[in-house]
Amino acid sequence: MTAYRDQYASLFNGGQNVVLVGISNDSEEELGSWAKDIDLPFLFASDADNNGATYKAFGGGLRDNEMVDSRAVIVVGPDGRIAGTIESFNQNDPMA
Questions:
Q1: What is the Cα–Cα distance from 34 to 69, expressed in whole angstroms?
Q2: Residue 78 maps to a domain
Q3: What is the pTM of this model?
């Protein structure tokens, strides 16, 4: 997620009129603390109590263990529609 933070403007429409939402099975408290600690310019959503239903509603798929894909990200475009779903992001992978 720090790669998204560092490249936010270049990856997402100059950082304008795009909403980026990171979704995971982590609790709201964990996500809020983490986002604050590393100063992220986007939102997080917790799907911890929803068995992946929130993420599936955004078009994402679940792993075999019914968990949200690793570091899943939803991109909402200027028109309010889902512009993309990135189901698995590994910032340690140079090809990411």
A1: 18
A2: yes
A3: 0.65
